[in-house]
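Morning - iron/sulfur cluster inputs below, output right after.
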Amino acid sequence: MEMMTVKIKRFDGRNSYYQKYEVPYEKGKTILWLLTTIREEQDPTLNFTSACRHAICGSCAVQINGNAFLACNTPLDDVLDTYKTMNLTFEPLKNFEVIKDLVIVWEPKMEKMTKVKPWIIPGEEGSKEIGFLQSEEDFQQIAAPTDCILCGVCASECNQLAVNQDGYLEPFILNKAYRYIVDTRDGAPEQHLKPVLENDLWKCLHCMQCVSQCPKTIPLTDQIAFLRSATMAMGELDNQGAKHAYAFHDDVKNKGRLNETMLPIKTDGLVQTALTKIPFALRMVKKGKINPLHMPKQISGIQEVRKLYEYAEEVKS
Amino acid sequence: MTLTYAFFPGCTLESAAEELMISTKKVAEALGIELIELNGWTCCGASHIQDIDNFLSTSINARNIALAESLGVSKLLTVCNTCTLMLRTAKLKMDKNERLKEQVNVGLDRAGLQYKGTVEVTHLLWALLEDYGLENLKKKVTVPLKGLKVANFYGCHIVMPPDVMGFENHRNPQSMEMVAEALGAECVEFDQRLACCGFHAVFPAQKEVMTMTGINCLSPKEAGADCIVTPCPLCQMQLDAYQPDAQKRFDQDITMPIIHLPQLIGLALGISPEELAINRHVVDAIPALQRKLQLA
Ligand code: SF4
Ligand code: SF4
Ligand code: SF4
Ligand code: SF4
Ligand code: FES
């Protein structure tokens, strides 16, 4: 019989250690089957959470060999095939506090979520009497974000969160804010948006982990782009993120290409650049990586590129 | 055998990563790959323009792809992860959504172009595996990179999101290892192999990104790597040019040379480090390479 070696990170409230289990391989099972089998047949002290077994409750997510998975809907065979191994290492989700073994604490995350006011702030149009009606089309806008099952996979994989737990919002919190901002029944989208901006919205690294791992394929990074656009539409342009984005936007319009020499100054301003980026700039000049005298020439076809800009403006209005 | 591609260099290759332009051209020539640079390509937006205007971001990349289509080639090749992602994202959106494609084409029409959807967007790394073939690559190796321990730093955008990139399993890609091993190098295992370099937020998240850079250098260093190799000029710039800034946040020595994928290939083809412009990096990679290799 083929055996799998399963290492699980245990935590008893004080100490953490890895424990090894040998489990006979069976075809066509799920990751949750594997955990349940270990608990039932080998070690009743092993702690993990699960409930619905149908990717609905969101309670069963774990890290396996460095990636987060929803245990109940992930085929064991897929994981073995991905890592080309019979050795699996289980750990609790990253970027969460751990209570015991694979069990994590959700309360602080829910507390943090209240920052974005995750509820409808009713607009003028509805009332208790007539209700809060929505067209089919309007409903479609919130269909994808409401698929979130709060499993925590995105947060576990988020690279910004890993280095900025207090400052940054979990991708599922951003999703929640998005959900109310685009809800046509909500009368105060800026009240959800402001806290998003204030909690390091521009620090998203665009690494694509969240969107690549979400078991519900929620378009998290498109939402982040939308949230950034929305803050700029609200007039929030005086920050590094917006200025950086506009540097690209404007350079392409003017020349077709990015002017890397001017990028820091456009993003940070002259004074800040002088304070923080001079050693970097000198290093780059010395190695011939930046030629301060090289200004990109206009590309051939720049007139045509500008027509695309004009047209995009027309489409928007 | 001559393979011909339309070539999208991307802005960094014209300035901060000119050494990648130089080494890409040298390697293509040595392998007998013809690269036709798009005339009048624009910056892909580097994951920033869509934050201002999603439709515009799709439109400028539709234009880039349309320029390639008019060359009558079947593939548009890049050497930058993020360029590949931006171009492929635009393509996928239009190919999936006829209405969007028509709308984008209304704009392109004013620019005298049409997006048809006939050209595939690829990266040099994929083209080597898919089109050129590892066996053919091996035949071209004159200086096997025996004893050189490389750490393959993929960079997120060559694998993620998988519905756009999709060349290989994003949780455990092997393409870099396959190429490096074909060249005779030894690949080290290290934790940060699939990490993010943080480049796209280096301005707003400077502190966090410098910490990440330090970790990304230390991890392969502790695994015994001689250098990091990456298929993305942005990862390279983040890990190399910002390394002295990252060092300030660490007590341990984080020094780690960072080279581009075409530079690694070029070395194995017997091209000298100078011709590959390896002398242009902020963290000098040549001593580490010389220790292990008989360089041309
Ligand atoms: S957004 Fe996706 S990954 Fe994140 S908690 Fe919701 S369902 Fe899970
Ligand atoms: S794309 Fe942004 S939100 Fe998503 S995982 Fe990366 S840093 Fe986090
Ligand atoms: S991502 Fe960078 S290299 Fe690619 S075109 Fe844009 S600015 Fe240039
Ligand atoms: S690692 Fe950084 S620069 Fe490289 S592809 Fe990812 S986000 Fe882009
Ligand atoms: S057990 Fe409910 S989502 Fe997995």
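Note: Chain A touches chain B through 69 residues (CB under 8 Å).

O.
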